[in-house]
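Bumping with the actual sequence this time:
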Amino acid sequence: MPRYRKLYYGVHIGRKTCLCNFTGACIIDKNHFMRLLFIGLLCCSTASGQAIFSGKDSSVIKIINDLPASEPFDTAHSYRKVNSPYVYIISDKDLYDIFGWPIPVKYEDFNFSDYHILGTLECKQCMLYCHHDEGQTNCHCNRCNKGWVWTMRDNKKAFTEIPVTIMPGHIGNKLLSKHHSFIGDTIIKATPDNSMTQWYVTGHGDCMAHFNYSLFTDKYHPVLLLQERNYWGGCRAGGSRDYTISFIMSPGILYHTKNTILMRKSEY
């Protein structure tokens, strides 16, 4: 007989069963044992829920608990407001731009080549325990309390790349003649006589900088993400470049974001 089976055995005392050790001393009765077992199982299910909890989103790796749950994210710039329910972090530049110092130091070893961080404004309890994405109408007992929930996601499972055509300058038959440049990025959606959508973008760097662009849709959220790779050119003076990115807009897109990755000159 295996050794562990000799250490403990059940002893019936009236209607109660005790768990005893090999000396015969009672350790715990059956009712208390079942309560502890139930609590242990509950804790395990909660822990696993925090690791992977996002229903149909198979790209989620885990929840991140050490990022701010409310605005402002950067107290040094308390005037900044987030105008979207989605915040994507795809590089260390995003960490610094969104949160400021010293949060980027904590994530200096984060593998942005394979993963990214997504912040969503929603109720964490709904994400953990409810199944609204599967049609469930009832909710948890207490009132929903929305906050920013941050998750680590797999890039390959989260995004689908969209074919694009990139042209230097701001061009296109839908561009008004008086508009030679835009303040920030501008998207002009397709019209019935033209299926292409134009994203007019401006890259900012030094006077010799180079820029590459890739466009992605999120498989689980109505977001269009433009990835800008900004290659350092080695010039002391500042500069900028205009581009027109043409593509076919995917249905159901409600939000768009441009995220910049700073690259070394040698990586161009």
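The tokens above came from a reply further down the thread. The chain has six helices and 15 strands.
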